[in-house]
Input
Amino acid sequence: MTDRKHIERLFRENYSAMYRLAAILLKDDASARDVVHDVFAVLLRTEMETEVGAGYLMRAVRNRCLNLLRDMPLTTGVERLINADMIAADEDDVLNREESLTRLSKIIREELPPQCSRVMLMRYEDGMQYQQIAEQLGISKVAVYKHLKNGLDIIRRKLTE
Output
């Protein structure tokens, strides 16, 4: 049974590790704090029949982060991928951002493996959900996730070259 004192103890013992995981996955401090707080808010509202431990909390944070990333609009994902420092809006930054977006589009269309490129475009250009992509291409949702992860890894590598 999960009671308030147990949840407070879990919070004190696990908050920093949960926050670090969310910050690494989301690359945004405010969103990371929100995710961790949401996990504890759900615990407070839900009557759990078994003891909740650190493993459960870390999985809950990871799953919430993945859901946020999955549902993130293309512009937000691209902006985070390119760099957070490009937020300033003077003319040089706007030109750099446009060049980066053009380069990103070229990488996706020309330098990724064909299936990976197709999945990336369906997800970020067409805004399709993982399940929709999987059904249309005749692959599993896990394969969609792996193609997206592989594509993002290649893009990160190419953009830092």
Remarks:
- The CA atoms of residues 2 and 46 lie 9 Å apart.
- The mean pLDDT is 80.
- The chain has eight helices and no strands.
